[in-house]
Amino acid sequence: MARWPFSVFLGVLVAASVALAILPESVGTKGRLVLRLPAWPPRDTPSFVAALAAAFAVFGLFASLVPSFLSLHLHTRSPLVAGAVVFILFAVATLTQLFVRRLQRTGAVRAGLVLLPPALSLVVVALIGVLLSAAVVGGVGVGLVAMGSLGVVNYLAPKDERGGLLASYYCAAYMGVGLPVVGLGITSDYLSVIASTAIFAGFIGLTAVLGALAARVNPAGCPGSRGFWC
Questions:
Q1: What topology does CATH give the domain 53-214?
Q2: How far is residue 59's CA from residue 86's CA, in Å, rounded to a whole number?
Q3: 44 or 94: whose pLDDT is higher?
Q4: At residue 195, what are phi and psi to the nearest 5 degrees?
Q5: SS (HEC) of the chain
Q6: pLDDT tens-digit profile of 102-123?
Q7: φ, ψ for residue 37 (rounded to 5)?
Q8: CB 38 within 8 A of CB 168
Q9: Which of 5, 43, 91, 151 is the right S-S partner for 105, CB 3.0 to 4.6 Å?
């Protein structure tokens, strides 16, 4: 019984691999294939990477924290409850992207970043109902940032450079998912789960606020620029 989720995941992974193999390549290749490193437009890169990492860090924080938090502090050991909370975050993030596709790219990023600190605050003071609210608010925030930031990258990237930019995008995203989780695990050996969570939630929230402040639209349209926030 405990193995069936892994079987389902393996089945989905196989289906995704088959779909990836049969999809046509959107960019033609000329000559031999060469290894290309991830690349970023030089302007505004630090603030954009920080904002993107902060958004995806909410995913990592929920996925790693929720089961132990429910068990230790809310005395709920049900895998179904823990999975439901994380599922709500991912589901809301996905639905948000479907319903607000027409929102301006930078505006979506800014709105999503503004929603992350309240979601993180709810996590720190979580009861079960508040934790669900945090998942919903955080899901909307992450969905907006993911949709808007990916739209920005696709808009900026010429076809022959899109692979490098998208590779960098996902590097930043997975750093956001992974590094806070590792840090949370290390600090939990010395501090309580609540204290560790508060520290990392505060850091992620501050990063999101700074990213939101950086996400401003230049009225002139940034002519000749490849900056992220234009």
A1: Growth Hormone; Chain: A; (1.20.1250)
A2: 8
A3: 94
A4: -65, -45
A5: CCCHHHHHHHHHHHHHHHHHHHCCCCCCCCCCCCCCCCCCCCCCHHHHHHHHHHHHHHHHHHHHHHHHHHHHHCCCCCHHHHHHHHHHHHHHHHHHHHHCCCCCHHHHHHHHHHHHHHHHHHHHCCCHHHHHHHHHHHHHHHHHHHHHHHHHHHHHCCHHHHHHHHHHHHHHHHHHHHHHHHHHHHHCCCCCHHHHHHHHHHHHHHHHHHHHHHCCCCCCCCCCCCCCCC
A6: 777 777 888 888 888 888 888 7
A7: -80, 155
A8: yes
A9: 151
Within 13 A of 4's CA, how many CA atoms are on the CB side?
Answer: 1
Predicted local confidence at residue 46, as pLDDT: 73
- Which of 202, 145, 14, 2 is closest to 83 using CA atoms? 2
Q: Per-residue confidence at 34, pLDDT binned at 50, 70, 90?
A: low
Going from N- to C-terminal start, the domains of the chain cover 53-214
- CA neighbor of 168 nearest in space, from 54, 28, 37, 38: 38
Q: How do residues 4-21 score in pLDDT, each as one tens digit?
A: 778 888 999 999 999 988
Are the beta carbons of 10 and 139 closer than 8 angstroms? no
| 85, two tokens | 């909370």
Enter the tokens of residue 64: 């790693």
**Contact at 8 Å (CB) between 116 and 204?**
yes
| Cβ-based neighbour number of residue 150 at 10 Å | 19
